[in-house]
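FAQ
Q: What does a multi-component entry look like?
A: The components come first, one per line:
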Amino acid sequence: DAGITQSPRHKVTETGTPVTLRCHQTENHRYMYWYRQDPGHGLRLIHYSYGVKDTDKGEVSDGYSVSRSKTEDFLLTLESATSSQTSVYFCATAQGGEQYFGPGTRLTVT
Amino acid sequence: GNSVTQMEGPVTLSEEAFLTINCTYTATGYPSLFWYVQYPGEGLQLLLKATKADDKGSNKGFEATYRKETTSFHLEKGSVQVSDSAVYFCALLRQGATNKLIFGTGTLLAVQP
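Then the predicted structure of the entire assembly, as tokens:
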């Protein structure tokens, strides 16, 4: 257990509102990731970070931004939520080629 | 490009049956290969991995062998239990990538008593 927590665990929001999801780790891992999980697509990488203030886009980054001001925290922001962003969001960290996942956040955009 | 293809589910088995979930990959170089498991309502957990050709990863009675000649990493278990019911994801980590995993779409396994 890599000590990864995500908050909130569940959120319902309205179209057009901003939303921020938080990932917190206690293992001092350098790499952190945000994925979304949707039926028929598996997990798709949104953004990742390879150090404090160092981030890059994944394969489905449109409509999302991230920030990492401390090693332990990686924030995912939906600037203006849309119904297509209804999904389960997972945070992960990596050490030694292995990834460790948080429990997920279920986001519903109405 | 790099990709992972898994057999579609759901796979429904009776307890103590033999399990195979097929996984094939496309990648340049020599990726590391992984199987992750996701139990209902939880995040993914690493089940097993293999880092080079002919390596066999194993854990909790599950096994998978890295076959470079067939670009495959099939997951097997000799006798499944109800508690094995979960979604299984095959994934690859490309050499030189910043630890970015590429996942298959997942296979739901349902084991009936």
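Q: Is there any commentary attached?
A: Sometimes. For this entry: The interface with chain A takes residues 32, 34, 36, 42-46, 49, 51, 89, 93, 98-101, 103-106 of chain B (CB under 8 Å).
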